[in-house]
Amino acid sequence: MKILVITGSAHKKGTSSYLADSFIRGAEEAGHEVFRFDAAFKNVHPCVGCDSCQKGSRACVFKDDMQELNPELLKADAVVFVSPIYYYDINAQIKAVIDRFYANNSALKGADKKAVLMITYGDETEESAEGAAASYKGMVKYLEWKDAGIVSAKACYVLDDILDSEYPKQAYELGKNL
Ligand SMILES: Cc1cc2nc3c(=O)[nH]c(=O)nc-3n(C[C@H](O)[C@H](O)[C@H](O)COP(=O)(O)O)c2cc1C
């Protein structure tokens, strides 16, 4: 299976990156091929809704790092979204990537893909992640993909918190058994 992992955090040694690493380890051990796109270190302009991609050339006006991501997105059998929670939602870096899916909307909608969400946050209640989980579920339903699981890592402010938690194992198992 070809798996695309999209991360949002700028913390190379942060909580969500650690979850991504754990997931990838499991997936690669199971023989899957993984492509990782760390959005915080890429140049991705936010969608401006100009609709150019829906008419004429059918291409996005922004020639940026989405050109690297798009072929991987189209051929992926599974797409994994990994983000810290910023103000009760996924962060802007990963949201910018998702909004740019619009240029390939007709190819993505109804495609046979699995999806995974992995989120990390400091609060001790899952309420803080409800918004992110709801928009992920809405997107997956709209795109007609299959939700393969959510890892919601509460009380994980910094790396040490997640190292002591059950979440890296959850991420690893999800990668291994996707
Ligand atoms: C701008 C910003 C907003 C945040 N908002 C929340 C929040 O709403 N709820 C929460 O529990 N933690 C919040 N946090 C804490 C992060 O979610 C938490 O530290 C997370 O582990 C960071 O992940 P990372 O190390 O992968 O970047 C916020 C952190 C930042 C920098």
From TrEMBL:
SUPFAM superfamilies: Flavoproteins. The keyword Flavoprotein applies. Residues 1-124 form the NADPH-dependent FMN reductase-like domain. Keywords: Flavoprotein, FMN. One of its GO terms (molecular function) is oxidoreductase activity. Pfam families: FMN_red. InterPro entries: Flavoprotein-like_sf, FMN_Rdtase-like_dom, ISF_SsuE-like. This is Flavodoxin family protein. It comes from Schaedlerella arabinosiphila.
